[in-house]
User: What shape does this take?
Amino acid sequence: MGTLRAEDFLRSDGITLLLVLVLAGAAWLSSSAPRKWRAILKGLFRMRLSPQMMREDLDLRQRSSLAAFFLSTVLIAVFFRQAMVEQGSDRMGPWGFLGLLGLLLLVVLVHVLLIKGLGAFFKGDGGATEYVSTLLLLLTVNGWTLFPVIVLATYLPGLRTEMMVLGMVLTMALLVFRWFRALWVGRDEGLQFRFILLYLCAAEIGPILIAIQAYWSTAHP
Assistant: This one.
């Protein structure tokens, strides 16, 4: 499990270039929007996001917010591609990373549109705007928490299995935390618990379980 393979996407010079580009993007972000990282950390440790924070620091119409989210999504895609290679189930070829990145961006877009649509359906925001901001915030945090995991797994292949487990644990912890915050925000906004739980089961937990089952059946026929 921990040995390098000739077809390993993460062995090529491309992964080094990709990580350097991500760091360059983070450096640009720090210089052009020095408040951004502080706002992300502040939002992580708050159960509710203030309207000012959502408007000024977590709005994807701002280039800095869009860049932070996109860079983190790139890191998430790298990690999951790495996990697929480690499991020996990567059948997408050397350019599969781009397909995985596109899929992740599409899934996030569908989630955002669904949440916004549900907010409009209930004739009020009902915390939808805040949950969208929370979703994007925690995805951004997820990507950057995976950065050291990716680096260690790439350049210390003997630790790759352990790093994959650690990355999955971090990702699942942030996912569960996001669901907990969804319940918190929804209840604070007066939504009934069963409606919040129905959304989480139908739109988030259920699809994740289906994807895991489909991946497992493909990887282990």
Q: What stands out?
A: Residues 75 and 143 are 5 Å apart (CA to CA).
